[in-house]
Amino acid sequence: MDINAFNExxxxxxxxxxxxxxxxxxxxxxxxxxxxxMLIILSTLxxxxxxxxxxxFDLHYAVVVSAALVxxxxxxxxxxxxxxxxxxxxxxNEQLKPEIYYYHFNVGDxxxxxxxKETIFIKHVEAILNKEHDGWPVTKKLRESxxxxxxxxxxNVNKPTE
Length: 162
Hints:
Blueprint: H1 3-51, H2 60-80, H3 82-104, H4 117-134, H5 137-150
């Protein structure tokens, strides 16, 4: 492989993806933790407000609003999956990290006699990235529908035998 093309790949694709996954992981971690703290605080406040005597503190509407906010935040956490994204992005980033060291120090496939280290590096990096992309729900649905269309239709497959 041309060393200039490899260096361009290294700078743009590999380092770009490392940077992306690092930032995306940190962003999702922050969102997840912020939502969790809001849930903890609002849940606690809701319980305290509901337990206060009504003759001294009429917080009926505050309890309802607080409980509704807890429901909304819980639903948002489930819908937007900040924790899952944080873990997936961090995991992908951690899988990419050592690949450059394996390349430089001829570890594994890189150390084999006559190995095209640059091609191996690109294949390994792209396999890691594809593995992460395969986890995307939309991608999974598209692949499943493509797989179903690609399968040959055999009318006798599910027919009961007589």
